[in-house]
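Researcher: Re-running this chain for the archive, since the previous output was lost when a drive failed. Same request as before.
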Amino acid sequence: MTGTPISVKEKTFETEARFLSPYAKKSCETKGRARAEAPCEFRTDFQRDRDRIIYSNSFKRLKNKTQVFFAPEGDHYITRLTHTLDVAQISRSIARALSLNEDLAEAIALGHDLGHTPFGHVGERVLDKLSPTGFEHNIQSLRVVDVIEKEGRGLNLTEEVRDGILQHKSTGHPATLEGTAVSLADRIAYINHDIEDAIRAGILKDSDLPQSAVATLGHATRERINTAITDIYTQSLGQPFVRMSEKVAAATKELRGFMFEKVYALTNKSMQERAERMLTEMFEYFMKHTERLPAQYVRLSEISSKEQIICDYLSGMTDRYAIDVFEDLFIPETFSLGGVKV
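Model: Regenerated structure tokens:
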């Protein structure tokens, strides 16, 4: 045998060059990281980003963060972690169908909600009201991977993954088609699996869903997801964009609006008072006693405002941990009745 053996990573580069769409972001074309690092012999930079996110503390905590239903009685309700895995799977399906970079799409999907608060979107609205600079979970997710993880060193992800995380909301404009695939997958996942949870909780019946949207997308979750992915494939194959047809996009928007009116608002109302009270009182407490924050966040005060590091700490909490901290700070043990203090 003559010559230098080709590395595993170089084989990946060759495979991408041969089989990916001309509009895909090839791994060898990455804009790189803010801090230069020695390359990995086996993994591409996007594959390394995926691994870094999966092994991060913020990712592990997603399993105990609310998606829609707070502390549900049942093992099959969606959490922020299972939602994230749903988005990753749908993103990879879209990327595979369109010959985009699956590794990039998956890395973005796995990191897109790392900055989400406890108590779902209720927590996000509370912190947005409390912080003088506002709070958005996509911006916080980027802060998590840039600043908070690894005790302030961050994960040093590639520019393409960082962009996809920041721009994943429906109002965003991702720089890559893989980022757009994740943005669409996020909406497909949360609408359809939140419907399942609402039906499981007895808030909705199948017959309550808007029939015009159901007629377009399908009656069952698997049908609606398959319709959306197939439609994206039909509209976007070989094109410099990733999008739904007007008909499917309109039906998806109608279903989303229905869920906000009939489920999210009602569910959030039942959580709002307790979540707002806990987060508000903890925010005010740590504004007066910043030294009581964990050492990691106290160190961040050298480069960030007091309000920002308090939001960092509160948004990183799981639902259960937020309750525990609140109880430790404000509720004497003698006030506990049957283990229920809030």
